[in-house]
Write a structure and sequence with these properties.
binds uridine-diphosphate-2(N-acetylglucosaminyl) butyric acid, alpha+beta, 32% helix
């Protein structure tokens, strides 16, 4: 599917944010820890979540979705993840820790590289080994076996997925498991909070040092998936692109702290408890130097959005340093340059000099880059085509329709 976008018109109005993809995927992985029913509210209807639900169902879980509510219950009937499904999304790796904890074994096809970078699994697997799990590589899959025992592991990097897997791995272990240099992203903290509700004792919830005291059996839970901070930043970026005036509701402004810190220097931003109001009259002359890093610093998932904003800023310079996913800069820069942007990339550095963008035929290379192309197209003079909308649909619910409600001129073409 393609999007056809005519730049121009100001976005106005109010738009609500739905549940976060990366929270939903982590919590769905954790449903394996119990046979009881886990009910997840505010579960976004996006391709990555649909595929994760299919994966759980293919392994024996009963999965029922009614609108934004998903109920998952029952035991697994196989500990071998279907390779067709598992390789569709990187998030499938998030079943690893729970399978080991509950079934003491798992076979997972290696998620492998993807468009944004090489994405190794060493921290996940070394961490499992630190808790007594045996890890064996076969041709295109990894096999893990063993009953996790108490232990200590310090991650060499605060990996979101590894923190989530290791938390789950330790949740059914009696004794003390200690994790250091953990990721503190809001999605990780939501998982910690759900595990506590299911019966795990965790000291240090929300911090980078977690002490986990597992229990023999966990029980079911009802849990609200947190709002998607990247979707909120996408709507705000779309408003900046169109010199708009919008209010984003059902979000947690604190979760967007690093992004808001930057845009507050240039635009009129009002933070409320669960909403952000933004009024844009002019484009700034560049955004300075931005370096991506783990939460609460500037997130890699908002880096492409910022590159788009910098591309149509008022002639000034912006430097972006991408520390996490090596391919995210170049792919997006190449597409923006087709719209007349002035971006040069060298390794992890991108230098962007603001210029007037014009409509062009572009290709979404990955989920976040695709959404950021939509933002650029809303600013460009003329009409743009964005191909590969399938990438965007992995993480956004009806992006085109939601932007249309705010006044964007955007249509879908099969
Ligand atoms: N890393 C390793 N070894 C590992 C794990 C990670 O070297 O074993 C490296 C990665 O290559 C990367 C850095 O550590 O350079 C951070 O990766 P992390 O493990 O934190 O990322 P992830 O868990 O694979 C999640 C999100 C990503 C998001 C990153 C960073 C999910 C399903 N995915 O990925 O989201 O960019 O954290 O915040 O939660 C997206 O939504 O588009 C997306 C890519």
């Amino acid at each position: 599917m393609d999007y056809i976008i005519k730049g121009g018109g100001r976005l106005r109005g109010e738009i609500g944010v739905y549940g976060a993809k990366n929270c939903a995927l982590a919590l769905l992985g954790a449903t394996i820890l119990t046979d009881d029913e886990v009910i997840l509210n505010n579960c976004p209807q996006i391709t990555d979540v649909d595929n994760m639900l299919k994966l759980l169902a293919s392994m024996g879980k009963t999965v029922i979705r009614r609108g934004d509510e998903v109920k998952v219950s029952g035991a697994l009937t196989t500990i071998e993840a279907d390779s067709g499904l598992a390789t569709l999304l990187r998030g499938s790796a998030l079943i690893l820790g729970s399978c080991i904890a509950r079934y003491h074994q798992v076979t997972l096809p290696l998620p492998g590289g993807c468009a944004i970078g090489s994405r190794p699994m060493d921290i996940h697997l070394n961490g499992l080994e630190a808790f007594g799990v045996e890890v064996e590589f076969e041709e295109k899959q990894v096999q893990c076996k063993g009953v996790p025992r108490e232990g200590y592991y310090r991650m060499r990097f605060a990996s979101v997925g590894a923190t989530e897997n290791l938390l789950c791995c330790c949740s059914l272990t009696e004794g003390i498991c200690e994790l250091e240099n953990c990721a503190c992203e809001p999605e990780v903290v939501a998982l910690e909070e759900m595990l506590v509700k299911m019966g795990v004792q965790i000291d240090g919830v929300g911090s980078s040092h977690l002490v986990i005291k597992g229990v023999k059996k966990l029980h079911g839970v009802y849990f609200d998936i947190i709002p998607d901070r990247i979707v909120a930043a996408t709507y705000l970026s779309a408003a900046i692109a169109s010199k708009g005036n919008i209010t984003v509701t059902n979000c947690i402004p604190e979760h967007l702290g690093a992004f808001l810190g930057i845009i507050e220097r240039h635009f009129d931003v009002k933070r409320y408890d669960t909403a952000i109001k933004l009024t844009v009259n002019n484009q700034p002359s560049g955004y300075g130097r931005i370096v991506t890093a783990p939460y609460p610093l500037f997130p890699t998932d908002m880096q492409s959005l910022l590159m788009s904003l910098a591309a149509f800023s008022n002639k000034g310079d912006t430097v972006i340093v991408e520390k996490l996913f090596e391919n995210r800069l170049l792919h997006h820069a190449n597409e923006l340059n087709k719209m007349g942007a002035n971006i040069s990339v060298q390794g992890e550095f991108a230098r962007i000099t603001g210029s007037a963008l014009k409509g062009a035929d572009t290709q979404a290379q990955d989920l976040r880059g695709g959404a950021a192309l939509v933002v650029a197209a809303l600013n460009a003079n003329g009409t743009s085509t964005i191909r590969g909308v399938e990438h965007i649909n992995r993480g956004y619910v009806n992006l085109a329709e939601n932007l249309r409600k705010l006044g964007a001129n955007i249509t879908e073409k099969e």
